[in-house]
């Protein structure tokens, strides 16, 4: 009897050009040969996340894991916590201009930190653990304070007359919000914010506060005035700044609705003369849609109330803290889901209704919760067979960031094509290079069938000198007992 596939997706222009989803990175990786790849994901810090947000974040961690193996480079995740999201908006009773205050200005650094800890810290730590991927977290407040970001912003002002139509095609007024130094409120649409002076040392703006009247804001690369840029402008400056780094390839992970908005950012990047090798590389993740085809939206719910809720939406999809299970359990389910989507470009580069995502989630493997978390390593067949036979008890790898996470007692799942074997780490030893390693490790425990010289030659064919330069880790392994069914073949 033929089995029905879990997921059926039609072909698309992009999917037709790719064998695997991660191949979208390959042209740029080949062109610039980066030392590392950082997957960048930004999220508004404004309460409990919904499924769409967590899907983008999970994709970042999973792609970091896949790209690390695919391109033999270090990878990591860079999480931007957008604490400039509006916390409160009021109307000036006289002019009817809207004023807003950011989360940062309302709650302070510690209040924002508490929100991040509540909604994201445990989730990210769990994702990092499950994918052996390091992440760093940067608030928008820290990002705008960095000299590189501020200098890039000042450079865009030199071409403001051209980029403003890309940033604001309907009226040409760029929303550069410069909060009042006394109260922290800023005009939402910056109608009365003026750039009055610009030279190589910096810029001077004037703006109007609803309580404190006219004020001046000097901006230079190192001063501490606050730059609250509207969404498109913030992305323009961020992508320009990140594009200058020739050693790290930054990959922007964005929800699918951004595919439309990025046309405007690209127009502005072109006006600024951004070279092709500095143009941002972006991956758009599947959108989560209501049955009408509209994006699942928390703000729409806030405006319209529960009536706007699609009938098919499950409570945890809107507020992921409502998930019936712990964080690791939620993360493992999401990783399974995103891995299924990434497994075929036809599945990944498209949108999903909440109903379809609910169906997929309820079809996840029944033993997912019982499966132990394990580091994963691909391995050649001849070594796989030796591990499975229990005669290879030392595995050798270069000491990149994912290996640095391995601890004695952890599990490692070795994969070779359709086979896998689960092992437990008995000890860890680190060395400067393969020669030093073989001075200390019994040659036969690495490979009982080859001499030291043969093994050195083989291993150096696998790892070029720049990889060996990371250092070498020798991992003691033994076969792990697994409950029935867990060590199944995928
Ligand atoms: Zn004020």
Description:
- It comes from Nocardiopsis rhodophaea.
- Pfam families: ASCH (PF04266).
- InterPro entries: ASCH_domain, PUA-like_sf.
- Residues 377-481 form the ASCH domain.
- The chain is of the alpha/beta class and 490 residues long.
- Among the domains are: 13-172 and 228-285, 3-Layer(aba) Sandwich (Rossmann fold), CATH 3.40.50.620; 375-479, Archaeosine Trna-guanine Transglycosylase, Chain: A, domain 4, CATH 2.30.130.
- 38% of the residues lie in helices and 23% in strands.
- It contains 19 helices and 20 strands.
- The protein has helices at residues 13-17, 26-32, 51-71, 103-131, 140-145, 147-157, 160-167, 231-243, 258-271, 298-304, 315-318, 327-342, 345-348, 354-362, 381-388, 434-440, 443-446, 452-462, 465-468; strands at residues 36-44, 74-82, 86-91, 98-102, 135-139, 176-177, 186-187, 194-199, 202-209, 213-219, 228-229, 248-255, 281-285, 288-289, 352-353, 375-378, 394-398, 411-416, 419-431, 472-479.
- The strands form six sheets. The protein has a five-stranded parallel beta sheet. Strands 16-18-19-20-17 form a five-stranded mixed beta sheet. A three-stranded antiparallel beta sheet has the order 3-4-7.
- Strand 9 (202-209) and strand 10 (213-219) form a beta hairpin.
- Helix 4 (103-131) crosses helix 12 (327-342).
- It is globular, with a radius of gyration of 25 Å.
- Zinc ion binds next to loops.
Q: Topology, please?
A:
Elements: H1 13-17, H2 26-32, E1 36-44, H3 51-71, E2 74-82, E3 86-91, E4 98-102, H4 103-131, E5 135-139, H5 140-145, H6 147-157, H7 160-167, E6 176-177, E7 186-187, E8 194-199, E9 202-209, E10 213-219, E11 228-229, H8 231-243, E12 248-255, H9 258-271, E13 281-285, E14 288-289, H10 298-304, H11 315-318, H12 327-342, H13 345-348, E15 352-353, H14 354-362, E16 375-378, H15 381-388, E17 394-398, E18 411-416, E19 419-431, H16 434-440, H17 443-446, H18 452-462, H19 465-468, E20 472-479
Parallel strand pairs: 1-2, 1-12, 2-5, 12-13, 14-15, 16-18
Antiparallel strand pairs: 3-4, 4-7, 6-11, 8-9, 9-10, 17-20, 18-19, 19-20
The protein binds zinc ion.
